[in-house]
Amino acid sequence: AARGESDAWDAITEMDEHNRPIHTFQVCNVMEPNQNNWLRSNWISRQAAQKVYVELRFTLRDCNSIPWVSGTCKETFNLFYHETDEAHGVKFRPAQYTKIDTIAADESFTQMDLGDRILKLNTEVREVGPINRKGFYLAFQDIGACIALVSVRVYYKKCPFTLRNLASFPDTVPRVDSSSLVEVRGACVDHAEERDTPKLFCGADGDWLVPLGRCVCSVGYEEIDGSCVACRPGFYKAYAGNIKCSKCPPHSFSYGDASAICRCEKGFFRAEKDPPTMACTRPPSPPRNLIFNLNDTCLLLEWSPPSDTGGRRDLTYNVQCKRCGPEPDHCQLCEDELRFLPGPLGLTNATVTVMDFSAHANYTFEIESLNGVSDMSSFPRQVAIITVSTDQGGPSLVGTLKKDWASPNSIALSWQQPEQTTLPIIDYEVKYYEKVLKYSVYDSKAPSVIVSGLKPATWYVFSVRTRTAAGYSSYSPKYEYETTGDCKYLRPSTVLICCTAVRPKNRVFCMTLIICHSWYFKAKMTSEDKRRANYQNGHGKSIKLPLSFSFTYVDPDTYEDPTQAVHEFTKEIDPSRIRIERVIGAGEFGEVCSGRLRTPGKKEIAVAIKTLKGGYVERQRRDFLREASIMGQFDHPNIIRLEGVVTKSRPVMIVVEYMENGSLDSFLRQHDGHFTVIQLVGMLRGIASGMKYLSDMGYVHRDLAARNILVNSNLVCKVSDFGLSRVLEDDPEAAYTTTGGKIPIRWTAPEAISYRKFSSASDAWSYGIVMWEVMSYGERPYWEMSNQDVILSIEEGYRLPAPMGCPVALHQLMLHCWQKERNHRPKFTDIVSFLDKLIRNPSSLLPLPESPGEEMDYPMFISVGDWLDSIKMSQYKSNFMAAGYNTLDSVARMSIDHAVCLYNHLIKNGLFLKRSLNLNWYCNMVPRYFTTLLLTH
Ligand code: ACK
């Protein structure tokens, strides 16, 4: 440090309590007035920082402990700074300096401490910045204190170099503005490649936030401890991604490091479409046990599959036919002369039917088995061989067939009678078949035939052979014919096309048919009985689409594959349309950010983005997206709107409308007492309207609480948080946890706590609690009572009293929501119309009981006597009257002594609140809430 003008500061070396030397700057001119002693630091380069922190450690003498100094002795000093681009040397002008703060000591020492050698060290940290020049000076101004400056540490914060998701992120200095983040793009580590652009955000405190995107190890490399390591010999990795190297599949090997694929052993192969994970395979051995079966018209060849399939399943057979003369070497191929059913090549069954063969001929059939790698092997193929002699018939005697006439279903054919035959012709056999199907035969005595029963618009093949005593001749050349079409066989699609041609009135009907038809398929595809049935049973509703008022909610858990529910009910958003701006909170699964969403052709909108943090397991991803599948089914101004989801890239995100004022509980706490009752009732009305919509949809929220309501800039409240129901359902422990576990005891109806009977009626109970939270500006329901006490006191009939200034009508509504018998609680539709009535008639919102006779939906007690009757305390009428409590208003203002006295009396007589409430708590509430305690009992 450099000394200032006055030279009052002294550089002194002292010993600390451990006898180690400490170097300090000290000043202690406490006796003299008007001190102005400066001490200046050397020039400090700001390096990369924009904002720096100055940590001062100092001791300060307590003025009271120094005699005769009153008026002159000070207990503070001032900290200044001055930005410059270069060091000024000794030049020091205090006027150039800007004050950072006045520094006071938390602890000052006295003479006694000094004697005991107790060092009362103070540590103070101040922020300085933004600093734009290359560096700065610090200066300390003493104005008459007794100070020893022990250390000055100047530092800045940075997000340190880090490796995340296989990407490296450099040292990054945060922004000066502590609420905005620096977006940093990561570089993939060696042998890794980008999936989604890896990014991190550097927060003001030097913490990395919101990891987005990632790199994955390239082919041949696997992730080990955050880097990509080559696969060892004998292992491979064929795809880039977060998978491990795998052992080479059977009959393959890899010699080197970092193999993308394993090579096949000699004699083994991989077909073009075989995945690298598949074993290498070889061609099959030949078929076995080949036999034939010959009758008049056909020859059946059958065989057994090969003993070695080569390790593959894509086994087929080819048949080759050779017709040989007397000399075995004189063979010709003959597949084209014969007809094979189903064909000569690519057979998948070990059998084939051969037709159209000639009589008195020798055929040799070779059956070859093949698989997907047969073409790759250079080894000669092995076949099964059989020779068949068709010792019957003779050459075809019939010439070309002629069509005489035809209809869609029949055809008349004729042919030339053979001129000369050695034996008389017994009959003709007419064979015909659908070109692609099985054939039929027809016997005809005459050289003509009428074949009926044909299908219209179908190709047929006909041929004829003669039969004599010596057997059949060969078949005549084939005659092919396509029967004509017929209206009867038109396809249904044609019917739909016809629709546009009918009269307008009928067209409507016709269109309806088409819509119903497509709806039918949609319903089949999406709902399936199981899912919709509960809503049909429970709510007596049928599924009618497509109008929104009759939608019912579909539980995503009824989908076998929950990702299908996500597809069905949410829109996938391309992450390039999302701009993340800042982190606004932490959700159950990861950060919640705010940002903007661009949609082509629309105005950019503000959104909240919930992210799923990396390293999640599948179940977490499913539970996270579950909320989106639920939210995506809703469309109501008081339900948080889902904009869409990002599931095809990392991180997985849920994008919803942005609610400027965040969650209702903290919003109310921050604005305690700021709103009119009408404004509060307006918020409650919105929540009730959202809940009415949910209950109409058959959705039970189970976690309705002010913390799960979001508020926008217009004070519109929207119900959010649709994740909980499954957690509760699955966790039998959760209902009984007393440690603030999963079940929100204070918000939950007794039947839901004790036997998990959740319903819209239990949501109505929670709604009553939300009303209480709102009217008390975010007070915690049942204050600091334990969960166990809350359960017990509810069981005994205790209900929350009216919050301060809460109109009685509203508290009555709360009490109505907290009826033990759930069927007696109001429906959300009743709540909405009741609140509407209150809003229309603001005088009903006065904080005192209504005057008798006013028309209300909820019972108003007319006199203290009636009221005591109604709560089965008639025997106390005279006590109340004697004490002067003859109106409810006066009961509400009961003196604390009377209230405690009555309370004790009731306790003593076992009349109410036996165990549940401790008296301290109770006394704090009396007398303001006494009426309510009694009212509800
Ligand atoms: O009380 P808050 O400011 O409001 O803090 C929490 C935080 O994120 C964690 O949930 C806020 N939040 C959640 N969803 C939204 C939203 N759609 N719009 C604005 N803030 C939101 C919530």
From TrEMBL:
Active-site residues, Swiss-Prot/TrEMBL: 703 (proton acceptor)
Reaction catalyzed: L-tyrosyl-[protein] + ATP = O-phospho-L-tyrosyl-[protein] + ADP + H(+)
Keyword Transferase: yes
Subcellular location: Membrane
Domain of life: Eukaryota
GO biological process: axon guidance
SS bond list: 28-146, 63-73
Every SAM domain range: 863-898
Stretches assigned to the Eph LBD domain: 1-164
SUPFAM superfamilies: Fibronectin type III, Galactose-binding domain-like, Growth factor receptor domain, Protein kinase-like (PK-like), SAM/Pointed domain
UniProt topology in membrane: Single-pass type I membrane protein
Annotated keywords: ATP-binding, Disulfide bond, Glycoprotein, Kinase, Membrane, Nucleotide-binding, Phosphoprotein, Receptor, Repeat, Signal, Transferase, Transmembrane, Transmembrane helix, Tyrosine-protein kinase
Annotated InterPro entries: Eph_TM, Ephrin_rcpt_lig-bd_dom, Ephrin_rcpt_TKs, FN3_dom, FN3_sf, Galactose-bd-like_sf, Growth_fac_rcpt_cys_sf, Ig-like_fold
Binding-site list for ATP: 584-592, 610
Recorded GO CC terms: dendrite; plasma membrane
Annotated ranges, domain Protein kinase: 578-839
Name of the protein this chain belongs to: receptor protein-tyrosine kinase
Native species: Oreochromis aureus (Israeli tilapia)
